[in-house]
Every structure is written in structure tokens, then in C-alpha cells.
Design brief:
- The chain is an all-alpha fold.
- The chain is built from three helices and no strands.
- It has helices at 28-40, 46-64, 72-75.
Length: 77
């Protein structure tokens, strides 16, 4: 099987270019965990998976930590 049998989706002019790089170092054990997960769920695009996973985590936390007019204790009364 060739390495690139699938065609890549072309970026549209509406999508911003990804020009900023983030580097993350992992231990051997962490790398094995990530590789095992990607293989198990047949994820072939590792950078897309990292990007979507990290951004989903950030969005979830931001939704939970949104500013409110009243404190949580006041709202539960």
C-alpha cells in the first residue's frame, strides 16, 4: 500500500493558514501511549488530532469558566 493513497483536502482561501508552530516533547512512555491510541482508533493525521484535542479541551474549559454576573453560590440559592 502506498503511503499516500488518499487525496488531501485542499485548503480554501477562507481558512486561515497555519503559520505558527508549537513543539511538545514527550517521554518514551507518553509517545507509546499516544501511538497506541492513534493506532487503535485508526487516526492517521497526528497533527490534526493533537490540534483538535487540545482546542476541544480549551473550549470546554472556557465554557465552564465563563464569567457570570453572580457567583455559583448565589445562583444555587
Amino acid at each position: 500500500m502506498r503511503k499516500r493513497d488518499k487525496t488531501c483536502a485542499k485548503a480554501t482561501p477562507l481558512e486561515p493558514k497555519r503559520e505558527h508552530r508549537i513543539v511538545c516533547l514527550l517521554s518514551k512512555e507518553e509517545q507509546r501511549i499516544v501511538d497506541r491510541y492513534l493506532a487503535r482508533y485508526k487516526i492517521t493525521n497526528k497533527s490534526r488530532w493533537f490540534r483538535e484535542t487540545i482546542l476541544a479541551f480549551i473550549h470546554k474549559n472556557m465554557d465552564e469558566d465563563y464569567p457570570t454576573l453572580f457567583g455559583e453560590h448565589d445562583m444555587r440559592r
